Write a sequence for this structure.
């Protein structure tokens, strides 16, 4: 067997110039990738953050509409008084069945109201036990609300409006003899005050006191008497 010439074995492999050229090319490719990544990654992070924020906002609005839709027709004196419902542009107070995993069954007063926070205005949900048989009304503020939960915060701001059987939207609902038929939740950009497309509305399921479903006396349900 004959050996290959020594000069051929010495010429195999890369020269120093070729190695330097390969390293230079790799450096250029890595620098280009780093530049593209530096420009793309922040945009991806912002898009992902907006997606998360949009999903959280949609969930908060769904919880708000479900909460308000469950408002009950309950009077403080358990008589023919107006229902415990007080609606303003930046807050709404109503009675609904207790919604808590460890709470006893019953009714509670729910207040959705704007409060100031570190990030700006925020819509906060708080609750209080319902004092049946007392002289409480939403206007006198005798209840002690607790368990505050931020529902929607800046850069968004929430306002409410109310409609009765006439389907005319009003900014307040105070001391009425009946619950509103519908409540509209307007979502605005706090910086521009523009109404956003995510705004929504909900119907209140209860229209009459529970006693009207079994009572045959018109005096107990004056709202059923023909006029």
């Amino acid at each position: 067997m004959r050996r290959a010439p020594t000069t051929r074995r010495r010429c195999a492999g890369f020269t120093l110039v070729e190695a330097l050229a390969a390293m230079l090319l790799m450096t250029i490719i890595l620098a280009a990738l780093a530049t593209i990544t530096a420009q793309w990654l922040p945009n991806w992070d912002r898009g992902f953050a907006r997606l998360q924020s949009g999903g959280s906002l949609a969930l908060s609005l769904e919880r708000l509409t479900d909460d308000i839709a469950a408002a009950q027709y309950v009077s403080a004196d358990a008589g023919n008084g107006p229902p415990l419902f007080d609606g303003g542009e930046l807050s709404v107070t109503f009675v609904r069945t207790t919604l808590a995993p460890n709470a006893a069954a019953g009714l509670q007063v729910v207040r959705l109201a704007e409060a100031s926070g570190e990030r700006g205005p925020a819509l906060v949900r708080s609750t209080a036990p319902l004092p049946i048989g007392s002289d409480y009304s939403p206007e006198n503020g005798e209840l002690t609300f607790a368990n505050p939960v931020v529902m929607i915060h800046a850069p968004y701001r929430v306002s409410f409006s109310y409609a009765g059987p006439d389907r005319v939207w009003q900014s307040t609902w105070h001391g009425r003899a009946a619950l509103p038929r519908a409540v509209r939740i307007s979502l605005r950009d706090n910086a521009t005050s523009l109404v956003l497309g995510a705004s929504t509305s909900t119907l209140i399921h209860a229209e009459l006191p529970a006693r009207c479903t079994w009572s045959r006396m018109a005096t107990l349900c004056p709202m059923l008497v023909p006029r």
Summary: The longest strand covers residues 107-117. The two ends are 122 Å apart (CA to CA). Residues 57-217 form one domain. The mean pLDDT is 78.
